[in-house]
Write a structure and sequence with these properties.
- Helix content is 47%, strand content 8%.
- The protein has 15 helices and 6 strands.
- Strand 5 and strand 6 form a beta hairpin.
- The longest helix is centred in the N-terminal third of the chain and has 31 residues.
- The chain starts with a helix and ends with a helix.
C-alpha cells in the first residue's frame, strides 16, 4: 500500500472515529437531556395542558413547571416522536419522571396521572349528604351546593337537557328537587391547575359534576325506559317508589319483596306507612318513629297521606330499580325489620303486630 493510500485510510478512520464520538456524544446528550430533572424528587407537580396545545406549547408549559432537563432535547424529541393524541387536562407529574414518560402520559391522557379527586355518592344517601361530600372536593360549601341544586333557573335548563327531568321536581312541597335523580356512584373530579384557579370559583364546576351524575342516571333510566313505561308509572313515580324501597331494605334479596308489599298497599288503597318517608319529612336520621312524628304535616308523610310521597327520598342504584321493576308478586301487606336486618313479612295486621312485639329492638 502506498503512503498516499495509507494516509487516506488513516484520515477516513479518523473521520469515522470523530463521527462515532460525535454521534455517541450526541446520543448521550440527547438521552440525558430528556431524562429526569431530579430522579430522587417525587414531589407532585401539577400542570394544566389547555385544549388545542401542540407539542411546542406543551414543552414550554412543562419547562415553566421545572419538569424539563434540557428544552432543546425536549423539542428534538417532540419532532422525532409520534404524539398524535395529546390530551388537554390537568395532570400531576414529578421531577423523577423523564420527558418521554411525561409525554406518553399526555398522549392519550393517562388516567393514572390526571389530577383528580374522588367523590362518592352512596346508595340511599340524600341531597344534603351528597352536598356535604361534594363540598369536600369542590371550593363550595354544602349550603352553596344545595342552593345551586335548588335554583329554579338552573333546574329549568336541566329539565330542557334531560328527558327524565320534568316539572314534577319543581312541585310545591318538594324538599330537594334533584333528590333521587343523582346517580349513586364513585366519581373522579379533575382538579384545577394554577392557571385555572379563578375558574374553580365559578359555579360551572358544580354544574359539571351534576351533569356527570345526571348522565349516569340517564344511562340507567334509558336502559329501563320500556319497562318503566310498561309499569304504568311516570319516571318521577318510579324513582320515588324505588327510593323508598332502597331506604327501607338492608339486603338486596329483600328489595323485590318490599317493593311487592308497597305495590300491594297502593293497589289496595292503603297508605304506605313508611317510617323512612316520615323521617325524611323531618330531615332526621334515626330508627324509632313516634306517634308525634307520624302526625307531621308533610306531603312526604305516608302515614298521613295515601299513595307515594311527593318525590324521591334518596339516591337510587340500578339494582333497586330492577328490584322494583321485577317486584315479587306476593300477598304481604306488612313487614318488620329485625335488629340484624332480616325482615319478617306478614299478610295481616295481627300477624304484623305479633312479629313487631316479638322482635322489637328499639
Amino acid at each position: 500500500m502506498s503512503k498516499q493510500a495509507d494516509g487516506k485510510l488513516k484520515l477516513i478512520l479518523i473521520i469515522v472515529a470523530v463521527l462515532v464520538i460525535l454521534i455517541t456524544g450526541g446520543m448521550f446528550f440527547y438521552q440525558n437531556g430528556i431524562g429526569a430533572v431530579d430522579p430522587d424528587n417525587e414531589k407532585p407537580v401539577t400542570v394544566t395542558i389547555p385544549s388545542g396545545s401542540g407539542g411546542s406549547a406543551i414543552v414550554e408549559i412543562l419547562d415553566d413547571a421545572g419538569l424539563i432537563k434540557n428544552k432543546i432535547c425536549a423539542k428534538i424529541h417532540i419532532r422525532i416522536s409520534s404524539y398524535d393524541a395529546l390530551q388537554a387536562n390537568t395532570y400531576r407529574f414529578n421531577k423523577s419522571m423523564s420527558f418521554k414518560e411525561i409525554m406518553q402520559a399526555i398522549d392519550g391522557g393517562d388516567f393514572d396521572y390526571v389530577a383528580q379527586t374522588k367523590f362518592i355518592l352512596r346508595e340511599g344517601e340524600t341531597i344534603p349528604q351528597a352536598a356535604a361530600s361534594l363540598s369536600e372536593v369542590l371550593p363550595f360549601t354544602k349550603e352553596e351546593i344545595i342552593a345551586k341544586w335548588a335554583d329554579r333557573d338552573y333546574l329549568n335548563t336541566l329539565i330542557e337537557k334531560y328527558w327524565f327531568l320534568t316539572d314534577a321536581i319543581l312541585a310545591e312541597g318538594i324538599k330537594f328537587p334533584l333528590e333521587g335523580y343523582l346517580y349513586p356512584d364513585t366519581y373522579f373530579i379533575a382538579e384545577e391547575g394554577q392557571s385555572a384557579a379563578d375558574a374553580a370559583q365559578d359555579a360551572k364546576s358544580i354544574e359539571a359534576v351534576t351533569d356527570h351524575m345526571l348522565t349516569m342516571t340517564d344511562k340507567a333510566l334509558s336502559e329501563r325506559k320500556a319497562a318503566i313505561d310498561q309499569s304504568g308509572m311516570s319516571i318521577h313515580e318510579f324513582l320515588t317508589l324505588a327510593s323508598v324501597v332502597e331506604s327501607e331494605s338492608l339486603f338486596a334479596e329483600d328489595k323485590p319483596k318490599i317493593a311487592g308489599v308497597f305495590i300491594n298497599r297502593i293497589t289496595d288503597g292503603m297508605p304506605l306507612q313508611s317510617d323512612i318517608t316520615v323521617l325524611y319529612a323531618l330531615q332526621v336520621k334515626r330508627v324509632k318513629v313516634t306517634n308525634k312524628d307520624t302526625a307531621v304535616e308533610s306531603p312526604y308523610n305516608t302515614y298521613k297521606y295515601p299513595g307515594l310521597p311527593i318525590g324521591p327520598v334518596s339516591a337510587v342504584p340500578a339494582g333497586t330499580m330492577d328490584a322494583v321493576l321485577n317486584y315479587e308478586n306476593n300477598d304481604y301487606l306488612f313487614f318488620f325489620a329485625k335488629k340484624d336486618g332480616t325482615v319478617i313479612y306478614s299478610k295481616t295486621l295481627a300477624e304484623h303486630e305479633k312479629a313487631a312485639e316479638k322482635y322489637r329492638w328499639y
